[in-house]
Amino acid sequence: MNWIYSPEDPLLQTLIGCVIVFFVIIILTRLIGLRSFAKFTAYDFAFTIAIGSIISSTLTSSTSLAHGFIAIFGLLLLTFTFSHLQRKFPFLSKLISNAPLLLMDGNKILDQNLKYARIEKEQLISKLREANVLNFDQVLAVVLESTGDISVLHAGDGKQNEKFDKSLLSGVRRKP
Fold first, then answer.
1. What pLDDT digit, counting tens, does each position of 1-39 carry?
2. How far is CA 59 from CA 5, 67, 163, 169, in A?
3. Cβ proximity of 131 and 152 under 8 Å
4. Which of 84, 134, 160, 166 is at 20 to 30 A from 69, Cα to Cα?
5. What percent of the chain is modeled with pLDDT above 90?
6. Burial, 130: exposed, middle or buried (Cβ in 10 Å; 0-12, 13-18, 19+)?
7. Contact, 52 vs 39, CB < 8 A?
């Protein structure tokens, strides 16, 4: 029965740790900024995974609260510093982030781009349904974002929208 409950489990410490970690994360996020948990780049993804691992280790008593807080603070500080460096030196963003990729240009599916991104046509069509696209003529563009999300830009009336601002596609690769 030790796999269900063990008297040696530090249950009270874990509950107290949860409360403390919760407030520390809120305070640090308020100090460092919401960008800390955004998912814009590969390093944002890695940061989120690392924070989750640190919190898990801290709450399951693999490490002390102080040790966990220092690790979380260090990662948040690194993220904060790196985001400032990216603004100062734009080449850093290009170095660590994939540029978004166009999957559909208007009503035309770009099969080569789908293949490059390892996205099946059925997955693309599923995203079109999620965006309430009723027919391909509504689609202005579909973009695989650098986060892995798929954005569907479409006109609601089934006609190509003449007011579509092409600058929405700035930085989007048309070819892999």
1. 677 777 777 778 888 888 998 888 888 878 776 666 666
2. 16, 11, 52, 43
3. yes
4. 84
5. 32
6. exposed
7. no
172 Cβ neighbours under 8 A, 6+ residues apart: 99, 100, 101, 102, 141, 143
List of residues 6+ apart from 108 with CB closer than 8 A = none
Question: How buried is residue 48: exposed, middle or buried, by Cβ count under 10 Å (0-12/13-18/19+)?
Answer: middle
Calculate the average pLDDT of the chain: 84
Q: How far apart are CA 143 and CA 115, in angstroms?
A: 14
pLDDT of 64-82, one tens digit each?
A: 888 888 998 888 888 888 8
Query: What gap in Å lies between CA 172 and CA 110, rounded to an integer?
Result: 14
What's the Rg (C-alpha) of the chain?
A: 22
C-alpha closest to that of 78 among 28, 22, 146: 28
Distance (Å, whole) CA 93 – CA 156? 34
